[in-house]
């Protein structure tokens, strides 16, 4: 253990500043570090006191005691997809069925400068209903529905109360921090029947959030077969650069996953469709956000970029591999 930091009173601090400037600079740095650590420790203490977070042994015991394990998550939709590897890892620890409940209409607390298709809630009824068919398709999920006051054994969105930077790192790891269960992320955790009608299509999705402002998609004009997934306003925005791009509406996210699974390859930024491409582990290219780099391609076929030249080179190589 290092020597405990001792905070100086105002007079001692002023004296140090006047008599030993280099030592005072070091002291100010350590003072800032001390305040940050104390604030974080206070939040951790509050989190552990107020929240019923579990370790793997407790999760196993709860499942055995109840004959099932009921898990709840309140979204966003992409966060739920990135939670599935942890749920899958949990199913390997227990023999009881796992049910996932989606808690809707929870406040998003979105920054005023940002917009989101759902406004200021993390998950609404329509989005949940679009997610459920895809989640039920996974053999490690016993049931999935909108939460209606069922008994819950495990809350997967406790990470929001931890003093961690949610805009950095890897979204998939959030759930390990509150469960102790380590997910496998370099293998597919979603399986669907691929829609082969899109086997020659580059499938693309680009939300208004998480964009790299130094990137242009204009070079994709040379590739004739491009299909867009997402909301129609995003499609119309992409049409300004790529007038030939086609729009593919879907009834639910199982259909979206089938289109992505059947595509030649996928391009997207850190929006919901990319989470599906990552879960499927198909050939995929991620436009990484400078401000919020919290999505990381992992495993085979994953590519990401910050620079235009690398974006164009990766697309060219993936197209060449199709021949």
Automatic annotation (TrEMBL):
It comes from Pedobacter soli. Gene3D superfamilies: Glycogen Phosphorylase B. This is ADP-heptose:LPS heptosyltransferase. It comes from the Bacteria.
């Amino acid at each position: 253990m290092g020597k405990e930091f001792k905070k100086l009173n105002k007079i001692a601090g002023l004296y140090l500043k006047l008599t030993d400037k280099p030592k005072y600079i070091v002291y100010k740095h350590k003072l800032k570090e001390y305040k940050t650590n104390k604030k974080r420790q206070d939040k951790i203490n509050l989190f552990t006191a107020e929240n019923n977070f579990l370790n793997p042994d407790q999760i196993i015991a709860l499942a055995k005691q109840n004959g099932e394990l009921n898990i709840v998550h309140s979204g966003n939709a992409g966060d739920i997809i990135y939670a599935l590897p942890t749920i899958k890892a949990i199913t390997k620890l227990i023999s009881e069925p796992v049910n996932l409940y989606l808690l809707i209409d929870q406040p998003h607390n979105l920054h005023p400068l940002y917009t989101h298709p759902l406004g200021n809630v993390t998950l609404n009824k329509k989005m949940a209903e679009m997610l459920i068919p895809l989640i039920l398709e996974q053999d490690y999920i016993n049931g999935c529905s909108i939460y209606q006051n069922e008994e819950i054994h495990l809350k997967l969105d406790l990470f929001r109360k931890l003093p961690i930077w949610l805009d950095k790192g890897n979204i998939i790891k959030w759930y390990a921090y509150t469960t102790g269960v380590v997910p496998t992320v370099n293998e597919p955790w979603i399986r669907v029947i691929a829609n082969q009608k899109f086997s020659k299509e580059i499938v693309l999705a680009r939300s208004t959030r998480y964009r790299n402002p130094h990137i242009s998609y204009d070079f994709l004009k040379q590739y004739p077969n491009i299909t867009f997934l997402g909301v129609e306003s995003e499609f119309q925005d992409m049409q300004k650069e790529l007038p030939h791009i086609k729009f593919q509406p879907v009834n639910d996210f199982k259909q979206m996953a089938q289109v992505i699974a059947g595509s030649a390859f996928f391009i997207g930024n850190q929006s919901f469709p990319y989470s599906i491409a990552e879960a499927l582990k198909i050939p995929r290219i991620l436009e990484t956000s400078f401000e919020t780099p919290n999505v990381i391609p992992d495993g085979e076929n994953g590519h990401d970029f910050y620079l235009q030249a690398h974006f164009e080179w990766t697309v060219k190589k993936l197209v060449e591999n199709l021949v």
